[in-house]
Specification:
alpha+beta, two-stranded parallel sheet, extended
């Protein structure tokens, strides 16, 4: 998943705001980094190592049985990285530990399982000093980056399977009904979210904030119905849509990024001085015969200025053909850049022409991009007809360059600009100021020059 800088800054800011909620009263604000930074590093290392975890554990057992002492190189090759972890744990299965002391012991075992180069990083962070505080405050993993599209079938079977899973985090009583918040085993992202929901604090004025970075796999694989989703929000969030809290469909954050082109328009001046300048450019490029063809063309069609580059090009081609000089793409480009000049009043330059259509040469300086919301009524075409063509009727969209992207824009969805003042109100204020100033100059002058 690729993020633009603005999105990365938003995620970073959101994470630090969550830290303010979760770590407040446990750490002073200046010490948040002692927890957030190492935990972010550990989670990323854990995610990278997860695909080869089983292979590393198997090889480590084999090396131990063989009495091999120097295992680092072999284990790195098995992990596919310059580091590894030989503990039986991952951050995902550590979360199943209900007792705090057991969690502390297992988490320390997990850290001990990293290779020496990772230990060096953790020692620089002095992260082990934070573990007792985190466990005592029950705030270990309130921030997570779940494995995208990763199966949790093994964990599900270990916990009893869907039918017999009795973990209170995923079996909730609500209004006399039992809700089983269990997603399909092929994607465990939503299970991370449900687990964090159970840790939310409902007994403070601020409540809790949780952050979880998702890709789209949990949305595609989700088995929860709309009714179940509503029950979850009612249960955990007591959600009420207001000006400051809303539920949006995914498409509300999506957009088509379209590329809008406009034609290149060129004016050609065939005056003697202009042709001399062009000849120097041709000689520098080793294209003297092209300059000769332009001179012959000027004799036939006059100095101009000519506002149809296409007609001038055809005339130059005829003059060049007479002397056996081909008008190649390179020579046409030389005509455009060294002889012609841009002019909005000129005719569009034709790039390709068939019996059914005409394709124009785009002007890079006039190229523009637009973001069209996926929920735009009528789609890209309706947007283009309404927003672009009335202002630039010669514009067109390049379909092959259209891309789909997503962004979370709080301004677009929540910002309400203050209404502009009416002309009557502004006029009244001006009249009041004018009235206040009437006679002021006379009074000032009078004070300086008393009678």
């Amino acid at each position: 998943m690729t993020f633009e800088n603005g999105q990365l800054n938003w995620i970073a800011g959101f994470i630090w705001n969550i830290a303010d909620d979760v770590l407040r009263d446990v750490y002073v604000r200046g010490k948040y980094r002692d927890v957030i930074l190492p935990m972010t590093v550990i989670r990323r290392l854990d995610a990278v190592l997860e695909p080869t975890k089983a292979a590393v554990l198997k090889l480590n057992d084999q090396l131990d049985e063989a009495g091999v002492a120097n295992k680092e190189g072999a284990l790195c090759r098995a992990s596919g990285n310059a580091f590894y972890n030989i503990s039986p744990f991952t951050l995902q299965n550590l979360r199943n530990r209900a007792r705090q002391q057991q969690l502390k012991a297992d988490f320390e075992t997990y850290l001990d399982g990293f290779s020496a180069n990772v230990h060096e990083i953790l020692d620089k962070f002095k992260f082990r000093n934070q573990i007792p505080t985190l466990v005592e405050a029950d705030i270990l993993f309130m921030l997570s980056n779940p494995p995208y599209g990763k199966s949790w079938k093994t964990g599900l079977e270990r916990m009893g399977g869907k039918k017999d899973l009795s973990d209170p985090r995923f079996n909730i009583q609500h209004d006399g009904d039992e809700l089983r918040l269990i997603t399909r085993s092929s994607d465990g992202q939503l299970m991370f979210l449900v687990n964090k929901l159970t840790k939310m604090n409902h007994d403070t004025p601020l409540g809790s904030r949780i952050a979880e970075v998702h890709n789209g796999s949990s949305l595609k694989n989700c088995e929860l119905s709309a009714g179940q989703i509503r029950e979850i929000t009612d249960l955990f969030l007591q959600f009420e849509e207001t000006d400051r809290s809303k539920v949006f469909p995914n498409a509300a954050f999506g957009y088509w990024k379209i590329t809008v082109e406009r034609p290149l328009r060129l004016r050609v001046d065939l005056s003697e001085s202009r042709r001399e300048t062009f000849r120097r450019a041709c000689l520098d490029a080793g294209e003297g015969p092209l300059a000769d063809a332009v001179d012959r063309t000027a004799d036939r069609i006059g100095p101009g200025p000519h506002f149809d580059f296409n007609a001038v090009k055809d005339a130059v081609k005829s003059a060049a053909d007479e002397k056996g000089t081909k008008l190649t793409a390179k020579r046409i480009k030389l005509l455009q850049t060294a002889l012609a000049e841009k002019d909005e009043a000129a005719e569009p330059v034709i790039k390709k022409k068939t019996k059914k259509s005409v394709e124009y040469e785009p002007d890079p300086d006039l190229r523009d991009t637009e973001q069209v919301p996926l929920l735009e009524e009528g789609g890209v075409e309706a947007f283009f007809q309404r927003e672009a063509l009335p202002h630039v009727p010669d514009a067109w969209i390049v379909p092959d360059k259209t891309r789909i992207g997503y962004e979370i824009s709080f301004t677009r969805h929540f910002y309400k600009p203050a209404p502009m003042r009416t002309l009557e109100a502004i006029k009244a204020d001006l009249l009041d100021i004018q009235a206040e100033g009437e006679g002021l100059l006379d009074r000032i002058i009078g004070e300086r020059n008393p009678a």
